[in-house]
Amino acid sequence: MSWIHKYLSAEEIKNIESTIVRVETETCGEIVPVIVRRSSTIGHIPLTLTLLLVLLLIILELPWSDWLWVQPWVWIWPVLVIAIYAISHFLVRFKWIQKIFVPERDEVDQVHQRAQLEFYKNRIHGTENSTGILLFVSVMEKKAVILADEGISKVLPKETWDEVLALLGSHLHKGSWGKGFVEAIELCGGLLKTHFPIQPGSQDELKNHLIIKD
């Protein structure tokens, strides 16, 4: 997971995890931050890019079409298409290419789907009093999602998390990812402390670390 150090240093990751530990000493809630490299599917991009580049090439070669589409030059076209497809596979590695070919609506939907998947895969729904919170960030899309379990949702409506998302989102776009996570965790902790204070015998049910995935 070396890619994470482009966005978070080892020191920032430790600071995020120590913030979770500190915040959870005052609440029975559980805060789980998850960061993933990408939520959107990009398997369609090489083919789409190939079709666009081939179409562009055909338009550019129109002035010379009388001799480019006859023997022996016509045989160069299959080679060009294969070469363009290979180049498209290389280009899809770049994040800005991925952003161009994934519509905003699709990004939003797929980020939310990935957030829901991580909510259940990391057993955030399995705390004793249903007081788990997922703080989810998808890097490519620069989007964040907060999902609260049933126990919290009964007390705090979805609109409660708008301020947290706005704070985190502003830091993501400025590039201060570590600060964004820390301040968002502290803000969530303040809300949980008010409505779900620590109780005698409360146990730490989920791990207090930043979960990093592709």
Number of strands: 4
- Lateral strand order in the biggest sheet: 3-2-1-4
* Rg, alpha carbons: 23 Å
Provide the CATH topology of the largest domain. Diaminopimelate Epimerase, Chain A, domain 1
**Morphology call:** elongated
Helix residue percentage: 40-55%
CATH class of the largest domain: Alpha Beta
Indicate the mean pLDDT. Answer: 87
Unreliable segments (pLDDT under 50, ≥5 consecutive)?
none
What string gives the helices and strands in order? HEHHHHHEEHHHE
Give the SSE layout.
Elements: H1 10-23, E1 30-36, H2 45-60, H3 65-68, H4 76-91, H5 95-101, H6 104-121, E2 132-138, E3 143-148, H7 150-153, H8 162-174, H9 177-195, E4 211-213
Parallel strand pairs: 1-2, 1-4
Antiparallel strand pairs: 2-3
Helix pairs in contact: 1-9, 2-4, 8-9
Describe the protein.
There is one protein chain. This protein is 52% helix and 11% strand. It has helices at 10-23, 45-60, 65-68, 76-91, 95-101, 104-121, 150-153, 162-174, 177-195, and strands at residues 30-36, 132-138, 143-148, 211-213. A four-stranded mixed β-sheet has the order 3-2-1-4, with helices on both faces. The longest helix is centred in the last third of the chain and has 19 residues, at 177-195. It is elongated, with a radius of gyration of 23 Å.
